[in-house]
Specification:
- With about 450 residues, the protein is an all-beta fold.
- The chain has no helices and 36 strands.
- The chain has strands at about 15-20, 25-30, 35-40, 50-60, 70-80, 90, 100, 105-110, 115, 120-125, 130-140, 145-155, 160-165, 165-170, 180, 190-200, 205-215, 215-225, 230-235, 235-240, 260, 265-270, 275-285, 290-295, 295-305, 320, 340, 345-350, 360, 365-370, 375-380, 385-390, 400, 415-420, 425-430, 440-445.
- Strands 1, 2, 4, 9 and 12 form a five-stranded antiparallel beta sheet that branches. Strands 14-25-17-22-26 form a five-stranded antiparallel beta sheet, with no helix packed on it.
- Strand 27 (about 340) and strand 28 (about 345-350) form a beta hairpin.
- The radius of gyration is 23 Å and the shape is globular.
- The protein starts with 15 loop residues before the first strand and ends in a 9-residue tail after the last strand.
């Protein structure tokens, strides 16, 4: 989920073990995006504390899978034996089913393949409860594919390690798919800020943090609104160079994410008193639309009842941890094309789905079917609405590929309806974010009335 924190050698008296674990296979259909859970994945035995962890997607022989085949878009590890400290319940991928927050999110990674390590003297004591993962994997080929999640975990059994608690900060918290949309309707250089406030229930010291964003992000910052809005940490993305695979893999199923995120670390710790409010700011470019984005920061708190008054002094050893990986500052302008299938079932770039463009009235129903939209090319007047009816049991969504305004619906099914008002003229090209190559639609929004015609 973020650039790795600095790994520090453990004390000589400790027994440190690094083990590799591999899940069962994940199967992804051709050109599809799979979101799912896996409960009871392999884990270290109880005892000791986790100090380092990293993850990748591999084939049956344990070799990394190139993104020309499969991309591990993101993955979250959960400790099923502990309640999550920032969520009483979670909303599932279907945005309908809710389940208790009896699973603590303690590690995550995105396209940037986070490697996490804690400062010397600290560790995450995971206990003996089962682990689970949630993940999103994208298939860039027309054939079914299979891969495995492989992760390395370093455990230190030094009893002197101070235990840390992971706090998951998320601007769309308590969702299995915590996405939101940036409209992208402002001037060049503008910034869209969505924030999340959390009041810590215990006193302690934040010893590290790292973030996860999507394409279009400027950075994440952690601030204290009641302390003069001072910044106590940040996570800044680095974007791949033009020749990086993120910008050259085909078909294009989403806006490319960063290749690295900075983290911050301090052995002394940033003091936070019980009842103190901390704010996560998710800052994105707002001159271009960005859909289905995230703003997440995972911070590690070492409980400490000795922390005194609010707004305690910042530590003198706070450092920003980056990466030597080649890349660019951003955000990087990027236009997602609409992708369809040719006669042989291969992905091709298209301007619009097949068929004529039909004028429809405001309030018209668009049936979202098993693998298509009932009306693939429509024209409406500015200010009118369309009602998207998600028929059937399979999950789908409406996601902008390119157009005037960032639009993205939740995953829906069971005849639930998503209503979208089109307040800006232009051409909106949509796809289903779970079936981007199979399902497309174009909506042409006109400024004024027109004579009825087809094209």
């Amino acid at each position: 989920m973020a650039g790795g924190l600095l790994a520090v050698p453990p004390a000589a008296s400790a027994t440190v073990t690094t083990s590799t674990y591999t899940t069962g296979p994940i199967n992804v259909a051709g050109y599809e995006v799979k979101q799912d859970y896996m409960i009871g994945v392999p884990k270290p035995p109880a005892g000791g504390a986790i100090t380092n962890m990293e993850v990748d997607v591999v084939d049956q022989s344990g070799q990394p899978v190139p993104i020309q085949r499969l991309m591990l878009h993101h993955i979250v590890f959960l400790n099923v034996g502990r309640k999550d400290p920032t969520c009483d319940s979670f909303l599932s991928f279907d945005n309908l089913t809710s389940f208790p927050g009896a699973a603590e999110r303690f590690y995550a990674a995105g396209e940037e393949r986070a490697k996490v390590a804690l400062p010397a003297g600290y560790g995450y004591k995971h206990g003996g409860a089962p682990w689970a993962i949630t993940y999103m994997v994208m298939n860039h080929r027309p054939v079914n594919d299979q891969a495995y999640i492989q992760y390395k975990v370093t455990v230190d059994d030094n009893p002197a390690l101070q235990s840390v608690k992971p706090y998951w900060m998320d601007v769309q918290n308590c969702h299995a798919d915590p996405i939101y949309n940036v409209p992208g309707t402002k001037r060049s250089g503008s910034t869209h800020n969505r924030f999340y406030d959390f009041t810590f229930p215990e006193s302690g010291r934040i010893v590290g943090g790292m973030g996860h964003v999507h394409g279009g992000a400027r950075k994440l910052s952690l601030t204290e609104p009641d302390c003069g809005d001072r910044q106590i940490g940040e996570s800044v993305p680095t974007w791949g160079n033009p020749d990086h695979p993120f910008y050259n893999v085909r078909p294009i199923l989403h806006e490319p994410g960063p290749v690295n995120m900075t983290g911050f670390q301090t052995q002394q710790g940033i003091p936070v008193r019980a009842g103190e409010r901390v704010r996560l700011n998710s800052l994105y470019d707002n001159s271009r639309p960005h859909t289905r984005v995230m703003g997440i920061m995972l911070v590690f708190l070492a409980p400490d009842g000795s922390v005194g008054g609010p707004c305690g002094p910042m530590p003198g050893d706070l450092v920003t941890l980056g990466s030597s990986q080649a890349g660019r500052p951003g955000p990087i302008p990027f236009r997602i094309p609409l992708t369809g299938l040719d006669a042989n079932g291969n992905a091709i770039t298209i301007k619009k789905p097949p068929g004529r463009t039909v004028e429809v009235a405001g309030g018209t129903d668009i049936q979202v079917l098993q693998r298509s939209f009932s009306r693939r090319n429509v024209r409406i007047r500015r200010g009118q609405k369309l009602d998207y009816v998600f028929s059937g049991s399979e999950l789908h969504n409406l996601t902008l590929a390119n157009g005037p305004v960032g639009i993205g619906s939740p995953n829906l099914n069971g005849s639930r309806v998503f209503t979208q008002k089109f307040g800006r003229a232009g051409k909106y090209r949509f796809f289903c974010g779970l079936h981007p190559v199979q399902m497309q639609q174009r909506v042409v929004v006109k400024r004024k009335r027109w004579h009825r015609r087809h094209n």
